[in-house]
Amino acid sequence: MRLLLCLELFVMLVLANGAPVVAAGLFKVHWSAPVDGGRLWKDGRPILGESKTWRGVVSGSLACGLFSMATGLGFVFGGVFGLFGLAGDMLSSFIKRRLGLASSARAVALDQIPEALLPMLLAMWWLPVSVWGVIVVVVLFTLSNIFASPVLYRLGIRRQPH
After folding, report:
1. pTM (whole model) above 0.85
2. Where are the beta strands (DSSP E) in 17-116?
3. Is 14 helix (H, G, I), strand (E, B) or coil?
4. Could you list the pLDDT tens digit for every one of the 162 residues in the chain?
């Protein structure tokens, strides 16, 4: 896999995760409807939780689409890549709720791998990305997320230190 493509895909993962945080800061309560509509699962817990919003889905997908278009990978690929990343994040939230963990609870690997792996599997299918390329980007994203989160918290960008 080309090193530049690896870097572009890593940046897109960061955008899919970061754009919803930026959008929440900019728009506050506007467009903050939860994806699960506030519904509860059979266990009485939220399906996803109120932090998974349509504003986040749109902003994360749009940010990836625009970046992908600018790098020549195409808007459609980027938008779908962003959607897959956000779907992975929602899958993590769903699993965490079933395990009884709060939305702010830390679950190392569960908080990072699905949201990186799902879009990278799409990239492997859509682009000339090898299995090793997928592994490298997922590991890089996971480690950077784990180590950067406390710094972003101290800077006031994240609400939790993890």
Report:
1. yes
2. none
3. helix
4. 589 999 999 999 999 999 998 999 899 889 899 999 999 999 999 999 999 999 999 999 999 999 999 999 999 999 999 999 999 999 999 999 999 998 778 888 999 999 999 999 999 999 999 999 999 999 999 999 888 877 766 777 666 665
